[in-house]
Amino acid sequence: MHYIKHSLLQVFGYKIPRPAKDQQSPEVKAIYEGKRGTLSKADLEALRDEHKGAFFTKWKRRRWITLILVNLLFVASFYFDVQLVEGSLTGARVIGFHFADLNAALQIVLAYKHIVLNLVIGVVTVFFLWLLLGGRTFCAWVCPYHLLSELTEYIHLWLVERKVIKNHSFSRKVRSVFYVIFALLALVTGYTVFETISPTGILSRALIYGPGIALVWVGLLLLFEVFYSRRAWCRYICPIGVTYGMVGVLSPVRVKYNAEACHHEGDCRKVCMVPHVLDLTIRGGASDVNQDVTSDCTRCGMCVDICPTSSLTFEVKGLSKMLK
Amino acid sequence: MSNGKKETRRNRPTLTPRRREQSRREFLRATVLTAGVVGVSLLGFVPVIQGKAMRLRPPGALKTPDDEQQFFASCIKCGQCVQVCPVEAIKLADLPDGFGIGLPYIDARAQACDFSCDGLQCVLACPTGALTHDLDYPADTRMGFARLARPKACLAMQGKGFKGQARGPDYAGLLRYEEIDRWNPIAVADHPYDLEICDLCVRQCPIEIRITQCEAAETDESRQLARVAQQMGNECPPKHAITLEPVDRGDGVRRMKPTVQEGCVGCGVCEMICPVESAAIVIDLDKNADTVSGG
Predict the structure, then answer these.
(1) What ipTM score was computed for the predicted complex, to two decimals?
(2) In principle, which of A7, A171, B24, B278 could form an S-S bond with A294, CB 3.0–4.6 Å?
(3) Domain boundaries, chain A
């Protein structure tokens, strides 16, 4: 399966080789051929204007509401003592059922070197939940750091546009290095080292149990992202994203790319937090007319919202066919 | 840009010199980033090594008096123990605790664990067994061990009584007074005392309260059956935790000394209720009932 192989490559920071001519289907080749010289800049601008929406585009609105609601559910559940969702994002009980964050559970298993039954139950539940919903969907739709980082990203982009600062990129392979280092640190030291600096855990606990000094660390991360490197934590460091990226490999919820109407102008790659997953939208980047974006995608829907030609859409594999 | 000229090897002919320079910089930045982030995360070791992250932990915490590593390793930092505690004794540690961030602890002086949940709710709530399910009753817990740290300040040692609110009118701490409300803890400030000789640390000790109840049940014929059931489950604490012993200084003053016994679990209620500022009796973390009795 190319999809699985390509997904894992991207999750661990490797590049997917562009499809060679003989790897492209004749249909997609014909599409690329047919577009030669037909796209004028004016046409594109017209389409863009037509497609320009408000600040809260469809999927962004839905996503922000979901993210805020999920986190508020934790807060309200404790505040009003209704015991709907007890705990925090690292571990919770949802109407009595155990939920455990997969990465936190992994860190514990490596550090503690025992397997706890309740943890197994929580891990299996959460594994299937995100298997169904798309893996890194957790990042864009639940993680509170993602929202903060998304907000400060606007400041970063504004500063870059005014040429006040420059964005600095890192080698994406550094993610795998972090993943291995944090796993080894847990195993060797016997402490869940990553949890000490995880902004996801820190923010979730700060929301539910009240703020603390740890928020200073989160603030520093955000400043680093604003002034030095766009979305650096989520792009290059966070092992939670890698864990869920692997879960999402088998997920039916994906963003689908259709090459037919695409102008290859790259608006989608500009808004994307993980733009390498959209390399297939570059002219000659897709090997077939319809191709799924790999599981390193956070399913945030920014590209779906911005695409002037609706070439990127959400799909639920299997279900889409049934719905048609 | 001047560094780019030094790049003479051309093992990747597909990359333009500019792209190669870019990827070289990305690699260097990534190296610095790795060192930085891993370095920061390892700073969390410092408070642990210094012993500053050692705290009074909730009942059942996987630890020995001098080593909390297993507790650190197994806690998922979710705070479910915080949520179930009826007296809100449990708090989560902050960043200065390093690796201990997010770990539950109890500040006994502010609010101790008085076992008023009866069923060790925090232990039941723990999803990872960091609060081990191996214990059944409050008397089984080993949180620490009480010590009369300032005998001179102790009111009983001075032969003094105590009248009024144990910790003043503004103290927010809660305790369960079974004779007032079996199910809901009330503010200590709402329960003034009038004692001929101060015995608050003994009077409010959850272990001592339980022993008194068990003894009362034993003498009460009608509750014999219930008593059997209780004793089958070993619900009655087997050993006293704290007693008042008379002290004779030969000056004719009736003095009493709070004496910590082998049944002390280190819950911290004595430290919490002690009316002297600062508390005459405190909880030591480096001891527990097992290490004290040599068992």
Answers:
(1) 0.90
(2) A7
(3) 2-54+247-323
